[in-house]
Amino acid sequence: MPATSAPPSAVRSTLAHDKLGTFSLLHFSLTAATPLTVIAGGVVVMFAVAGQIGIPLGYIVIAACLWLFSVGYTTMSRHITNAGAMYAFIARGLGRIPGVAAAWVAATSYCAMQASLYGLLGVTAEGVLASAGLTVPWWAAALVAWLLIGLLGTRAVDINAKVLAVLLVVEIAVILLFSASNFANPADGLSLAPLSPTALGGEAAGAVLALAVVGFIGFESPTVYGEEARDRRRTVARATVATIGILAFIYIASSWSIITAVGEDDVVAAAAADPTGLMFSLAGDQLGDAWGTIGRVLLLTSVTAAALSFHNTTARYLFALGREQVVTAKLGLTSVRACAPWAASLAQTAVGGIVIVVWAVLGLDPELHLFYYLGTSAGIGLLALITACAFAVVVYFWRDRQGESLWHTRIAPVLACVALAGVLFLSVLHFHTLLGVEQGSPLPRLVPIVFAALALLGAGWAAYLKRAKPDVYSGIGYGAKATLVQGTGDVKVSAEVARGR
Amino acid sequence: MPDAPAPRLVYDALLITSHHDFYKPAVAPRVAELGLGAALVAELVLSGHLAVWSSDGSKLAPRDIGVAPPTDSLGLWLTELVRAEPEPLPVPEWLDFLAVSDLYAKTADHMVTTGLMHRTERRSRWRKASQVSYEPADALVAQAPLARIRRHLSSMEHRMPLADAFLVALTEAVGLSKSLYSQTPYGAREYALSHTRSLPAPLQSVHGHLAAAVADTAITGNF
């Protein structure tokens, strides 16, 4: 007699139609990354800073580390709420006090990363406008972009996603065209030297790896949509791995193509001579001047998109913290008509505006002192955040494997911890190279100290909340669902929420 | 056998979330649908047709003991849907489902039959499909629910009726705090909060999940 199956749920069948598939999640995560900014603003600078050609290898190493990390990360995301924020993983894995410490570091890092992009944006706009015969100071162009991003940030995220998606498609097409052109015009033939293990070493290895990590930020986005995913078990993991794979392919191909077009002996000097323009100079020489100009204009839109993307991420972090009342609850307010996290968005806009004004008033260099110093410092913070998250995954599954496989809960997470801790160690050790200053200078020491101080302050604040506001403390790490655990008296929440530490 | 109450809570929720005037904007469509879903569930919980099993992940289940089926089509529709499920589903899933079930049009049509709203159908010259819109029959009627709960918050003299206490919580959860508390006396928020905290556990659960769903919408932007 055949086994009778349970009748289907009409409600779940209806909801299944609206669930997001792998491509939808991939769309969200890739729009959070802006590859042209990474390549034109980061890869060429890496050649100049590191003084070596092992950049493609650096991207391979980081892609492998993040793939290992994503195995445990996406597995844990299925078992927790607020799976879009790494501090939530840390709160659930290591405890609420480390969670708040991580939240402070994360919010500061994302905020600093976003503000740093106004430097690159101002310089790029200044260059593009100068080529059109207009003289505009960098800060004026940055303020125009700041206003645009501030306005878009208070709109619903879906509008931003559409803007970012169009820009992304154009960017990827141009990068692939430029890379193909570079490979078609080799200086000394195709060389495999950039992929040799000896190509990446010395005091610059940590700098290369830290900058490579920054290029992948956004890979973690699919977990935000875990609850709307068609198959929470597979869709999120597939989209995360696909994001890492696609970005790795683009970065490896484009960095290798630049080495091929310029020549492995000359690329470092060429990059040092023209850090943000080398890619477009090559395109101009090979494809015609118009393509170089198109590339520069696209870099401008790409940096704007990157700033918008980081703006959204920062606003989302601040909004979640506001909802948990870990910071002022006002940051958890939404706009009525658009349902956007407008208070958090305005807070981020205010920070960005203050940074532009201060840098302009003090006459600091927008490229070196704003984009590079602030951006790389934020990169160290984000690398520390990912590493702490990797440890949280290990600890979380060490207590209970939740029925998941050994590979997903023990082997891959432990390997990711070792790899990311190594990358973080090298990055901090070689941070002076990253900043282009002498070893022993105060700045490379100051940045890790600032992040450590932030973490300590966050931990202290969490300890205060534990004693003075246990309701608020109980909701740490739950983001949008914090109200379900805070001061709800008899309200019982789902088993998953109830299991929280 | 008691009569099923008129579905007033869901009418009030529609007028508060979807009607816009000089003093109060309408909320985003997805949020309005979530609010309407929460109001309809709360109404059926209050009338004793549905129960929220708080001890088991806030699952929504039918209550079959001593209550006649709802007399209105809206309440009957949801009650029958809940009854038809092979096993009770969590409240968040029901809110998601109701948000994609065009609950606004269903409720508005219901209000048209009671004379509270007018239905207008316009045929577009460019599109083949006609566009349907709903307008309150009377501006005063449209403003009445918010005015009523604001009056409670202004006077703070008595305890609010349970349905109004839930409506206050709902209005705040969908992001209309500014309209709700504008020019209310000092202490109005605490007064409202004390009512929200003393809601019965099933209604607190529905309110909590509504607030979480609105916050999720803001984070994901998934309309």
Features:
heterodimer; A: 501 residues; mainly alpha; Amino acid/polyamine transporter I; 71% helix; 0% strand; globular; disordered C terminus; B: 223 residues; yeast vps74-n-term truncation variant fold; three-stranded antiparallel β-sheet; two-stranded antiparallel ribbon; 10 helices; 5 strands; disordered N terminus
Describe the 3D structure.
Chain B: It is a peripheral membrane protein. Chain B: One of its GO terms (cellular component) is endomembrane system. The complex is a heterodimer of chains A (501) and B (223). Chain A is an all-alpha fold and 501 residues long. Chain A contains 20 helices and no strands. In chain A, α3 (35-50) crosses α11. In chain A, 58% of the residues are buried. Chain B has a domain at 8-137 and 201-220: Orthogonal Bundle (yeast vps74-n-term truncation variant fold), CATH 1.10.3630.10. In chain B, 56% of the residues lie in helices and 11% in strands. Chain B is built from ten helices and five strands, in the order ααββαβααββααααα. The longest helix of chain B is centred in the last third of the chain and has 20 residues, at 201-220. Classes of the chains: A mainly alpha (501), B mainly alpha (223). Chains A and B meet through α1, α8 and α13 of A and β3, α4 and α10 of B.
Give the gist of this structure:
Chain A: InterPro entries: AA-permease/SLC12A_dom (IPR004841), APC_superfamily (IPR050367). Chain A is mostly helical and 501 residues long. Chain A contains 20 helices and no strands.
The coarse overall form of chain B would be: globular
Tell me the major beta sheet of chain A. none
According to CATH, what is the class of the domain at 8-137 and 201-220 in chain B?
Mainly Alpha
What is the terminal-to-terminal distance of chain B?
42 Å
Strand order of the largest sheet of chain B: 1-2-3
Radius of gyration of chain B using CA atoms only: 17 Å
Pfam family, one (chain B): GPP34
Keywords (chain B): Golgi apparatus, Lipid-binding, Membrane
Protein name (chain B): Golgi phosphoprotein 3 (GPP34)
InterPro entries (chain B): GPP34-like, GPP34-like_sf
